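re: ur question from earlier - yeah i can do the single chain one, its not a big deal. heres the input i used so u can compare w yours
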Amino acid sequence: DRFGARLHVLKLPPIPRAPLLFWPDTLLLRRTLRRIQPDVVHAWGSEWGCGVVASRLGRPWLFTVQGLLTWYREKIPLAGYARLTARLEEVTLRRARVATTESTFAVEFLRQRYPALTVRQVEHAPNRVFHQVTRRPQTQPIKFITGSLSHRKGGDLLLRALNQLQTELPFELTVVGGRNESLLDSLKDKLSPELERRIHYRNNLSSAQVADE
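and the output i got, formated as tokens:
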């Protein structure tokens, strides 16, 4: 119990979840929710099968869409796990009655693709620490910062653009996350070694450390 809220933390057995289509999650949550008796279940995101699990629980639920994997799948090739979760996201959206998302683009996409779905634009407040940031931008050299590099996040476009700028502009790039070897391998003939030397990886950061960056 904390600040008037009761948190229930459930431990899953060490078994594969995605190949079982997240049925271990479903069964554990279903048993626990019979005891808790919530008024509504909030399924946050598609990446871990949250939506499809919520749709099986037999309780009122809403679905928050973040990554919009259904759209990504149309634009870029997805790896095996992402393909599976994109398919599950599509199944979830066909089952859901109410969904929330942050961007106007996602709102319009969902309304056009799923006309029976009630879509609301809801922005989620960031961690308070980000409101306390004192901005001191680094300009010599210019510092770019991005989340983890991936095709899904446009990491390949960013690296190719910076590769063209490096002879004209002193800069460095901080990546909040680890190296994405498959993405870098796909670009190895298109990027110069000098660009690699300008990239700094910062992995496993706390929210406060990300705010500092």
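The longest strand covers residues 142-147. not sure if urs matches, ping me
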